[in-house]
Amino acid sequence: MSLAESPLPTSTGPAAPAGAGSTGADPSAGGPSAGASGARPSAWDRPGVRLTAGAALPLVILVAWQLVTATGLVPAYRLPAPLTVLQAGGDLVSRGELGLHIAISVQRVLLGFAIGSVIGLAVAAIVGLSRAGDALLSPILAALRAVPSLAWVPLLILWLQIGEESKVTLIAIGAFFPVFTTVAAALRHIDPHLVEAGRCFGLHGWSLFRTVQLPAVVPSVVSGLRLALAQAWLFLVAAELIASSMGLGFLLNDSQQNGRVDRILLTIVLLALLGSLTNALLGLVEKKLLRRWA
Fold first, then answer.
1. Domain containing 211 — which CATH number?
2. Does 55 fall in a domain?
């Protein structure tokens, strides 16, 4: 029997009349709600669950830390108790030093991050959108990217002296490469059909970049900014460890020279908290950018 001669399905069969919509959908197929809204969100996606899960492991580490110090399993001169670290922080606060160290470090990170990110976006646009720019700049930038952060310190001190300029410049170098690498790669892989469609509507140059190419790489821009921010904190410590008289990196180095393990742990915890806070703030910016452009 040919397909044309096949009998039509009866009213009791699995098929539904054309245009039946939601009233004729087969419940065994998942129903209209499953098809319209997709998979049900996991319980792990709820804000309260994520917050609780994120705080669980730090609390376990804190309890274990307290236990090994209280039982004497680890000597106090190697691992002070959490209360001792908290008291060291309170001492620095009472002397008016801790807030100053934090403010100076945050200022350096934000300045270096902003400068490095802006330059990284500009160079990424040149390399990602121009074959000539890619051929000229990619080899030298790939070589410079492999230079360790500490290798820049002596040269920056020689050129810019021991001051804010050398530290901010080092942080900007650290922030530059994640933004450049991520965004340049994204620009090179934009769907050419989107670009051609934009040109068909008379878009060229800056208007084409702003209307078509930039929205296409917004997720990559945000990812590059997140990596750049983390890299900025890493380069901050490298800058302040060697050539600084204030800041969290200086506090870390000074505590090591004086054998203050409690202050070393305090500085590490503060760096972790500040990095998490700035990353959370960048996450809020990410949501607005994705809502506006993506």
1. 1.10.3720.10
2. no
pLDDT digits (tens, 9 = 90+) for 265-294: 999 999 999 999 998 898 888 888 777 765
Higher-confidence position of 283 and 251:
251
Spatial separation of the C-alpha atoms in residues 262 and 82, rounded to whole Å:
9
CB within 8 A of 291, min separation 6: which ones? Answer: none
Query: Does any domain span residue 58?
Result: no
Q: What is the dihedral of CA 114, 118, 119, 124, to 10 degrees?
A: 140
DSSP letters, 159-215, are: HH-SSHHHHHHHHHHHHHHHHHHHHHHHHHTS-HHHHHHHHHTT--HHHHIIIIIHH
In a domain, 24, yes or no: no
CA within 13 Å, CB half, 118: 5
pTM of the model: 0.77
Q: Residue 233 is encoded by which pair of tokens? A: 């904190």
User: For residue 49, what pLDDT is reported?
Assistant: 72
Q: Which residue has the tokens 């245009």?
A: 19
> Rounded to whole angstroms, what are the CA distances from 194 to 187, 190, 191?
12, 8, 6
Does a structural domain hold residue 159? yes
Query: Over pLDDT 70: what percentage of the chain?
Result: 83
Question: How many CB atoms sit inside 10 A of residue 23's CB?
Answer: 8
Number of domains in the chain: 1
Of 123, 226, 132, 240, which is closest to residue 184 (Cα–Cα)? Answer: 123
